[in-house]
Amino acid sequence: MGAYLIRRLLLIIPTLWAIITLNFFIVQIAPGGPVEQALANIQFGQSSALPGGSDAAVGNRVALNSSPGDNQYRGSRGLDPEVVAEITKRYGFDKPLHERYFNLLWNYIRFDFGDSLFRSASVVQLIKESLPVSASLGLWSTLIIYLVSIPLGIKKAVRNGSAFDIWSSALIIIGYAIPAFLFAIMLIVLFAGGSYFDWFPLRGLTSPQFDALPWYAQIGDYFWHIALPVLATVISGFATLTMLTKNAFLDEIRKQYVVTARAKGLDENKVLYRHVFRNAMLLVIAGFPAAFISMFFTGSLLIEVMFSLNGLGLLGYEATIQRDYPVMFGTLYIFTLIGLLLNILSDMTYTLVDPRIDFEGR
Q: What are 92-107's pLDDT values in tens digits?
């Protein structure tokens, strides 16, 4: 198992390299890069949005090129080439493509993600500020979904075809059909001061006076803030895992070894949880990395926007819209690394559930 684990860890390196390389060359040909974004800001008089200490100087130089009485910068008719060259150099696009590529690889080997192009902060600082929010949503949502779906799927398999199986299937399918953002809107309207009750806050994970609260009040304040976002995230996540668990158990229950165990007079709970559970849970465990990453990033993006939560999903989305390449690649690198490590963790969990699985032998 140790040799297999080492091989999997070593495979992370070429995988990260391939993903970063592919995305680097894709964004080079995509229109509307950071230089174009900066020039557009100057054209509309928003030079303060540019990073660095010489924003005012750039703005003044553009303003000097405008005609008296003209309300728009001359950039609307074509910027001074010196201004364009200065902005291009500031963002590092004055260097050849291959030099920028190898600089990116060398920096990422050292986990040096650089600074944001449009925010006065480093990429590492932005990720550190956003990571707790996404981690909270992802971990609690995934935990709740697994704690509810696995027992529910087992009970549905045991009582297959009963009234409980039918109405529970109807409920989880209805929940699956409701988009997360639509359910979030309903929660806001009902419980966050929209039109009816003002029971839950609508912004952030903690209150402004959080640091002054005692530890037990801090725990309550945290769960008070995260209750609605987590509920909105999990509503559509029960169906897939519940039906997967049910079908896996039904498939195992019909096998000969279960019939033999029952014929020997073993207790039904021992048959289910000592014999069937190990085999049926393999499929469920295999889906854990994808479920967690989905909750961690894509599943929580709209929720972060609607509840004003500054998480990694919102950070990556805004960076993509603004063409903030350092933040884009930094978040991509972190998400890819987390996903690869979770896949390895999933393989390790396979052997804990069923010791007969030997990755080393394969």
A: 777 788 888 888 888 8
Q: Using 50, 70 and 90 to split pLDDT, how confident is the model at 110? A: confident
Q: How far apart are CA 169 and CA 245, in angstroms?
A: 13
More confident residue, 78 or 162: 162
Return the half-sphere exposure (C-beta side, CA atoms, 13 A cut-off) of residue 240: 14
How far lies 351's CA from each of 1, 308, 334, 346, in Å?
9, 41, 27, 9
Question: Sign of the C-alpha dihedral, residues 288, 352, 11, 331?
Answer: positive
Q: How far apart are the C-alpha atoms of 265 and 282, rounded to whole Å? A: 26
> What pLDDT, in 10s, does the model give residues 6-51?
888 888 999 999 988 998 888 777 766 666 766 666 666 554 445 5
Asked if residues 245 and 239 have their Cβ atoms less than 8 Å apart, the reply is: no
Identify the CATH number of the domain defined by range 124-353: 1.10.3720.10
With a cut of 50, say whether residue 59 has pLDDT above it: no
Answer yes or no: are the C-beta atoms of 232 and 137 closer than 8 Å.
no
Q: Return the axis-axis angle of helices 123-158 and 288-296, rounded to nearest 10°.
A: 130
Boundaries of every domain in the chain = 32-112, 124-353
Complete DSSP assignment for 268-317: HHHIIIIIIHHHHHHHHHHTHHHHHHHHHTGGGHHHHHHTT---HHHHHH
Neighbours of 133 (CB within 10 A): 23
Residues counted in the chain: 362
Among candidates 81, 92, 96, which has minimal Cα distance to 52? 92
End-to-end CA distance of the chain: 10
